[in-house]
Each structure stands twice: as structure tokens, then as C-alpha cells.
Design goal:
The protein has 1 helix and 15 strands, in the order βαββββββββββββββ. The protein is mainly beta. The protein folds into 2 domains: about 40 residues, no CATH class; about 150 residues, Glycosyl hydrolase domain, family 43 (Tachylectin-2, Chain A, 5 Propeller), CATH 2.115.10.20. The two termini are about 40 Å apart. About 20% of the residues are buried.
Length: about 250
């Protein structure tokens, strides 16, 4: 029996739909199959010096001998960062890490969960913050004293975003997604971007920064409202398709 024709999409289209469709219910049908981008079939793909994740055979012409595709398990190594400051704690997480020139930047949720017998969890030790750390090699991290926000009477901390109304919106700095906007047309004063949840009204708020430390909302209302937006909502500039990709950017 002849297999019915199935929709054919490129790998780039597949990745774009996967990234942009997660929050709006757009999914790729199990019947879809991938094809090389138009004009590239049968010819080498120039990947330059960038790293590629071999999730399919798009970049592989053939596999010979003992070669094969294997999913390697992560190996535990040394601890590079401990969330032990009073404004951090056991609930810290959602780390955004990227390389920015010779510097590695890290942004993460700072929160503490205080567990008391017989299993009662106190989540009100302190508000949720977004904190900042940096490194020269990605292994040895420092938490600079930014002096931007007060915590228990002192500004000696690495808090880069704190709770506070933005117009009618109520941003949640504890679930940040921070990235450097590589769009060549991006204004220098907005080269860093962040996406935060808004609890009320519901949606995602966009922020920009010139230095990656001091943030300004791009709007007093959520820029995206259609979606659940639980936890961390990623966004980034994709140079291959010259688009900003995120929960429902297109």
C-alpha cells in the first residue's frame, strides 16, 4: 500500500514552530517529516564555527564504520555556585547563562523555602528576586555588589530585579529569561532583553537594558497574553532566520 503524502517542512521551519508554538498550542503533527532547506539538498551545509546539536540527519550525509549517534549522560562535577546569601536560598533556580564577549553572565531566581516539621513549607521568607553573577571562564563565579535594591536595610547584594508594580502589571522577577539581543539593528541602549511573567494582568512583560543590570520595561502591559506562561519563558534572537523567537513571537 502506498503511504499517503505527508506535509513536508524544513528543519528550520520545524524548530521555529516548536519554539514559537509551545505557548499557543501549535504543535508539529506526528505525520510530518523533515526535508533539507530549499536549495541545499545534496550540497554541503556551511556551519562555520558554530556548534550544532545532531538531533537528526540534516547535517549528516552518511554514517560509516563504528560511528553512531548517542545521547550522552551528564557527568556530575564540582559545584561552581552556591545560593547561600540571605536573599537567595533553597528555592533558587531558573538560570539564564550566556557568553558576552569575554564575560559569562548568569541570571537566576533567588528564593528561599523554609521547611518546618511536620513538613510545613514557608514560602514567605522573602520576595522573589532576580540575581546576577558573572565569570571569566564559566567555572569560577562572583556575585558583585550591585547596590541597586535594598534587602533588610542593605544594598550590598547582587539583586538586579525586584518586585514592584509596572503600570497596572505585577511582574514576577523570580522567573526571568534573560538574553543578549544579537539583532544587528538593536539599539545599543537595549542590547540586553528580559522576559518576566506578569501575574495580574496575565501575560509576559518585556524589559531592556544597556548594561544587563539596570532594567526598564518596554511596556506597562504584557506584550504576550495568550498562554499559560508557567516558570521560565525563553526568548532569543535567531540569526539564521533573522527573527526574535519566543513563546509566541513570529
Amino acid at each position: 500500500m502506498k503511504t499517503p503524502d505527508r506535509p513536508v517542512i524544513s528543519r528550520r521551519e520545524f524548530l521555529g514552530r516548536t519554539l514559537t508554538g509551545a505557548a499557543v498550542g501549535l504543535v508539529v503533527s506526528p505525520g510530518m517529516r523533515l526535508r533539507p532547506d530549499a536549495g541545499q539538498a545534496g550540497s554541503p551545509v556551511d556551519i562555520g564555527s558554530r556548534r550544532e546539536l545532531f538531533v537528526d540527519d540534516f547535517l549528516i550525509e552518511r554514517i560509516m564504520g563504528g560511528a553512531g549517534l548517542r545521547l550522552h549522560h551528564p557527568e556530575p562535577r564540582e559545584i561552581v555556585l552556591v545560593h547561600d546569601a540571605p536573599w537567595e536560598g533553597s528555592g533558587s533556580g531558573y538560570h539564564s547563562i550566556f557568553r558576552d564577549g569575554d564575560l559569562y553572565r548568569m541570571y537566576y531566581k533567588a528564593w528561599h523555602l523554609d521547611v518546618q516539621p511536620p513538613g510545613q513549607v514557608n514560602m514567605d521568607s522573602h520576595p522573589l528576586y532576580c540575581c546576577y553573577a558573572e565569570s571569566d571562564d564559566g567555572l569560577h563565579w562572583r556575585k558583585p555588589d550591585l547596590g541597586l535594591f535594598e534587602f533588610r536595610g542593605s544594598r550590598k547584594n547582587n539583586i538586579t530585579m525586584a518586585p514592584g508594580k509596572v503600570g497596572a502589571a505585577d511582574p514576577d522577577p523570580g522567573h526571568p529569561a534573560v538574553f543578549k539581543d544579537e539583532n544587528p539593528d538593536c539599539p545599543p541602549g537595549a542590547c540586553y532583553k528580559a522576559i518576566l511573567r506578569s501575574n495580574n494582568p496575565h501575560g509576559l512583560l518585556a524589559y531592556s537594558s544597556a548594561d544587563g543590570l539596570r532594567w526598564t520595561p518596554l511596556s506597562e502591559t504584557p506584550v504576550i497574553t495568550d498562554g499559560a506562561f508557567d516558570s521560565q519563558n525563553l526568548a532569543f534572537w535567531d540569526a539564521a532566520c533573522a527573527q526574535l523567537l519566543g513563546p509566541s513571537f513570529s
